[in-house]
Amino acid sequence: MTGLQTTHTFGVMKQILNPSSTSGSKRPAIFTIVGASVAALGLALAGTVVAAAGSATAAPASVAAKTPGVVKQLEAATPKGSSKPTVVLVHGAWADTSSWDGEVTYLQDAGYPVRAIANPVENLTTDSEYVKDFLDSIKGPIVLVGHSYGGSVITNAAYGDKEVKALVYVDAAAPATGETNGSLSGSDSILSKDPASTLFTSVPEPGAPAGVDDIYLNEPIFVNYFGADLPKGQAEQLWATQRSASTAAFNTPSKYEAWKTIPSWFFISTGDKIITPTSEEAMAKRAHSTVTLFHGGSHLTLISHPAAVTAVIASAIKATSH
């Protein structure tokens, strides 16, 4: 078994999460705290055993029953008598709201209002406005979570919203003003190394400006890089059912950087070949984020290890709940 270690970095706490090194193992991981108090990290799992590593499949409805420690952590994250924040989950490109099924199950089992909303993935400015309008419909505090391109969206959508108490980036981009999502994959990303013809299948986007297309990830890229830690059959199914993404979404400059004023958390999978750890750590450093390094995983760790992702959401809730 391996565990969670903390060291001071980026001026914040850095958490290093090691799932079992045995592929597909059902053995649980032990979370331990080194060099920081449990309260400082907002974790309720110190010294307890939870199944952070498990079957790398889409989370079934009974997933929370398999890792009750995460539900207990969520239940302890909000003080008794206080209203729970609404957790809003924003998916990334070549995916849909079902990416969050595992996290939604944990949050609902712990009694949290949660919404996984559809991200248009058409244009960063309009996608962010769409999400911002949705946030405006929610009463009370919000914890806003984004995966992949969804990180760029929440960075803009949350700007100026006093109800958004925390931003959680899950293998995600967190652009500064003027940066594009497409520029943040990292020089060591497969998206930066291979030509577009190898990476994508392009389809004309009706009514779009010249040069703007809808793109799909090609199967070898999706299976071997995007969802590399998923069982091959599941990765192939997700490839077959992926939503397209507009090239405009990746090329539109960010207008805002909400992470400058809102506390943020970063969940970084060391096995991510799409937005690489090198790039994510740089973004987390400038945002002064609390960082969790998940050893292994892929760009779709939110699907293969929803317990680990939910634990970070719980940390953000605890740290910002009063």
Element order: H for helix, E for strand: EEEHEHHEHEHEHEHHEEHHEHEHEHH
Low-confidence stretches: 1-13, 20-62
Strand residue content: 15-25%
Number of strands: 13
Class computed from helices, strands and strand pairing: alpha/beta
What integer is the average pLDDT? 85
Question: What does this 3D model show about the protein?
Answer:
- The chain is of the alpha/beta class and 322 residues long.
- The chain is 34% helix and 20% strand.
- The protein has helices at 38-41, 63-66, 68-77, 101-109, 124-136, 149-157, 190-193, 196-199, 219-226, 232-240, 247-251, 277-287, 301-304, 306-320, and strands at 4-9, 12-17, 29-30, 49-50, 86-90, 114-117, 142-148, 164-172, 200-204, 213-217, 245-246, 264-269, 290-294.
- Mean pLDDT is 85; it is low at 1-13 and 20-62.
Task: Provide tags for this entry.
disordered N terminus, alpha/beta, eight-stranded mixed β-sheet, 13 strands, 14 helices, three-stranded antiparallel β-sheet, 322 residues, 20% strand
Per-chain topology:
Elements: E1 4-9, E2 12-17, E3 29-30, H1 38-41, E4 49-50, H2 63-66, H3 68-77, E5 86-90, H4 101-109, E6 114-117, H5 124-136, E7 142-148, H6 149-157, E8 164-172, H7 190-193, H8 196-199, E9 200-204, E10 213-217, H9 219-226, H10 232-240, E11 245-246, H11 247-251, E12 264-269, H12 277-287, E13 290-294, H13 301-304, H14 306-320
Parallel strand pairs: 2-13, 5-6, 5-7, 7-8, 8-12, 12-13
Antiparallel strand pairs: 1-2, 3-4, 9-10, 10-11
